[in-house]
């Protein structure tokens, strides 16, 4: 897991860029995919 801090000035915004990769352990076929992501936001 990669952790990255992003400082955001008051009244500003930030873009959080993500990417994902698919790794098949066997032959892959077309079909539905389910994913999930977890965010932790710490603010003061």
From TrEMBL:
Signal peptide: none annotated. Keywords: Fimbrium. Belongs to the fimbrial protein family. It holds the Pfam family FimA. This is Fimbrial protein. It comes from Acinetobacter baumannii. The lineage of its organism: Bacteria, Pseudomonadati, Pseudomonadota, Gammaproteobacteria, Moraxellales. GO terms for biological process: cell adhesion. Its main location: other. GO terms for cellular component: pilus. The keyword tRNA-binding does not apply. It is found in: Fimbrium.
């Amino acid at each position: 897991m990669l952790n990255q801090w992003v400082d955001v000035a008051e009244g500003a915004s930030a873009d959080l860029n993500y990417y994902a990769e698919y790794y098949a352990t066997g032959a892959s076929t077309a079909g539905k995919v389910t994913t999930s992501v977890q965010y932790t936001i710490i603010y003061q």
